[in-house]
């Protein structure tokens, strides 16, 4: 009988000790995350472990576009390489349909949207956005011969305006109460004006400056006027610690003049230069 009581007592003590051992064993006794848990929740650690930063982008000069050999170049392209070098990883550029960028980000088909992305409420709602780095504007592009005809939004009232789907250009058209037709990319919107399918298009001034006028593929098109002003930022996943890391590296590249050299090369205006 005594032996039975002793065994029962020992068993009870063991059962009471198990939860305590479990807490001590997994390091969560104080409510803190373990190193493994932190690594699992770190987007930056995930990206560094796989060794590649996958960037979602479109063909958009002067931010990301192919050279004569089919290699991606542009301000954002070179900017991304500088950041990746600091992180010790490679860069992979993945062309996306702009309207699907948030879904691709969430499902980890891409790690960030880095393609002259306008920092607006939609971007803030769907991504963790970095600090702004380049100034931009939404401009109306028309045929050079009609440039003096279109001077403000009211002169476009009876016109067909081409815009990129789910873009800042579309938002500007909606805000101005214009009749518009959506195209998959800004380059398609330019082509619509060139071919006469549209009277005008609304695109980023960065692209308009790079793609229209003498010596370009659209030498008979020209910017007429600006509708809105904006800034560009990089979109990372919601809750991603990559955002803070890119901001840290960006600050260093601003300080050492690397981004200023890139901005001069691609004829862009850094946010800090306009402040």
Describe this structure in words.
- This protein has 275 residues and is α/β, with parallel strands linked by helices.
- The chain is 41% helix and 23% strand.
- It contains 11 helices and 11 strands.
- Strands 1, 4, 5, 6, 7, 8, 9, 10 and 11 form a 9-stranded mixed beta sheet that branches. A two-stranded antiparallel ribbon has the order 2-3.
- Strand 8, helix 7 and strand 9 (180-183) form a beta-alpha-beta unit.
- The chain is globular.
General shape: globular
Task: Report the sheet-strand fraction.
Answer: 15-25%
| Integer-rounded radius of gyration | 26 Å
Distance between the termini: 87 Å
Main beta sheet strand tally, sense and closure = 9 strands, mixed
What's the β-strand tally? Answer: 11
SSE-based structural type: alpha/beta
Task: Output the keywords.
275 residues, alpha/beta, nine-stranded mixed beta sheet, two-stranded antiparallel ribbon, 41% helix, globular
Task: Give the topology.
Elements: H1 2-26, H2 35-41, H3 43-50, E1 52-57, E2 65-66, E3 72-73, H4 75-87, E4 90-95, H5 101-106, E5 112-118, H6 121-126, E6 128-129, E7 134-143, E8 161-164, H7 168-175, E9 180-183, H8 186-195, E10 200-204, H9 205-211, E11 221-236, H10 242-255, H11 258-265
Give a quick precis of the structure.
Helix content is 41%, strand content 23%. With 275 residues, it is an alpha/beta fold.
